[in-house]
Write a structure and sequence with these properties.
Largest sheet: 8 strands, parallel, barrel
CATH class of the largest domain: Alpha Beta
Radius of gyration: 21 Å
Low-confidence stretches: none
Number of strands: 18
Bound molecules: D-gluconic acid, magnesium ion
Shape: globular
Number of helices: 13
């Protein structure tokens, strides 16, 4: 069996997505997601110019060998561009293997460890009343886990909150938007948000919050401690994680669980955080962390330290990644939760999928392989549109972590 064709499809049904399609001499093809928000064409070129040519003639059944070939063979290891490209190939090959076997991917991984996958949705409000209303809507939709983000009094823009209300999409067309940030105002307000949520809704629902890398370690420690009475499921990305030792300081002060890893792309990025048990949930994703093959390695390593998975699942990872993630989640023994932000209708139409959402949980479906396809004709109707993530500045103009 041989790969005879590999091509990259870039489409913008509401937002940009990069998809790899790998075709075999037996008529079976597989697809993989290679979307890196705001830097899409770098991965598209990596695939088109450097990876697709060397895939031709390879046996698609040898997934592990192909993974090692692309990882070790490039000499330049890791990084989001490289690892997203490898991930797309890996996903496509697992898709092919599943189709050849006539089995959904989760069966190839070892079968289902649970009936369905618990997902968390985003309740976001420009102010406290709106945030609480959105939270109530999520409870009505059956979510058992809800992330809450809220506008902060005195601050013009906050991560995770749309200016006009409605679904949050951080990437914008044109020049990167500038947001301003005050850790002081944020730290003063956030405990009041959580107090209000627990007062009104009680403790039945898992409660999550994303700090989005904004605090220093000691500030993060203070926040975690202040939020302890509200029993969070997790506090996400409390401080940038390039320096993993920083999390020791946070841990010394608080038992609020911590989730990190959405911008990580290899097992090496999370090594110290996991082996020193500095985090509770690892948020790496199939697309940005080297595919199913590498995610499996990360999850197995994490399981040795009772760290559970909590994969990133924003709208900027395509419905192809969502499918792969759900197969992985259904199998992985140390599953925690899966993020699900949802998609614009146009994106759902371009990527016909077997996965489904119902009452706060999801299932990948039982179609062979990933159970996700791409409608290429429809995709061609939505050409690429340059878009950037915002940048954040402190109130005095200093560039900060967005
Ligand atoms: C999350 C994330 C996203 C990222 C986005 C960047 O927890 O879902 O923080 O909202 O900001 O994926 O492209
Ligand atoms: Mg996040």
């Amino acid at each position: 069996m041989k790969i005879i064709h590999a091509e990259v499809i870039v489409t913008c049904p509401g937002r940009n997505f990069v998809t790899l399609k790998v075709v075999t001499d037996q008529g079976v093809y597989g697809i993989g997601d290679a979307t890196l928000n705001g830097r899409e064409l770098a991965v598209a070129s990596y695939l088109k110019d450097h990876v697709c040519p060397v895939l031709i003639g390879r046996d698609p059944r040898n997934i592990e060998d192909t993974w090692q070939y692309l990882y070790k063979g490039a000499y330049w290891r890791r990084g989001p561009v490289t690892m997203s490209a490898i991930a797309a190939v890996d996903m496509a090959l697992w898709d092919i293997k599943g189709k050849m076997a006539g089995m959904p991917l989760y069966q190839l991984l070892g079968g289902a460890s649970r009936e369905r996958v618990m997902v968390y949705g985003h309740a976001t409000g420009r102010d406290l009343p709106e945030a609480l209303d959105k939270y109530a809507e999520h409870i009505d939709q059956g979510f058992q886990a809800i992330r809450i983000q809220c506008g902060v009094p005195g601050m013009q823009s906050v991560y995770g909150v749309t200016k006009g209300g409605g679904a949050y999409e951080p990437a914008t067309k044109g020049w990167p938007q500038e947001e301003s940030w005050s850790s002081e105002k944020y730290l003063d307000f956030i405990p009041r948000l959580f107090e209000a949520v627990r007062d009104r809704f009680g403790f039945e629902t898992h409660l999550l919050h994303d700090v989005h890398h904004r605090l220093t370690p000691i500030e993060a420690a203070r926040l975690g401690k202040a939020l302890e009475p509200y029993r969070l499921f997790w506090m996400e990305d409390p401080t940038p994680a390039e320096n993993q030792e920083a999390f020791r300081l946070i841990r010394q002060h608080t038992v609020t669980p911590i989730a990190v890893g959405e911008i990580f792309n290899s097992i090496w990025d999370c090594k110290q955080l996991i082996e020193e048990q500095l985090i509770d949930y690892i948020r790496t994703t199939v697309t940005h962390a080297g595919g199913i093959t590498h995610m499996r390695r990360i999850a197995d390593f994490a399981s040795m330290y009772q760290v559970r998975t909590g994969a990133h699942g924003p709208s900027d990872l395509s419905p192809v990644c969502m499918g792969a993630a759900l197969h992985f989640d259904l199998w992985v023994p140390n599953f925690g939760v899966q993020e699900y932000m949802g998609y614009p209708q146009a994106a759902l139409d371009v990527f016909p999928h077997a996965w489904e959402f119902r009452q706060g949980s999801m299932h990948p479906g039982d179609a062979p392989g990933l159970g996700v396809d791409i409608d290429e004709k429809l995709a061609a109707r939505y050409p690429y549109e340059p878009a950037y993530l915002p940048v954040a500045r402190l109130e005095d103009g200093t560039l900060w972590n967005w």
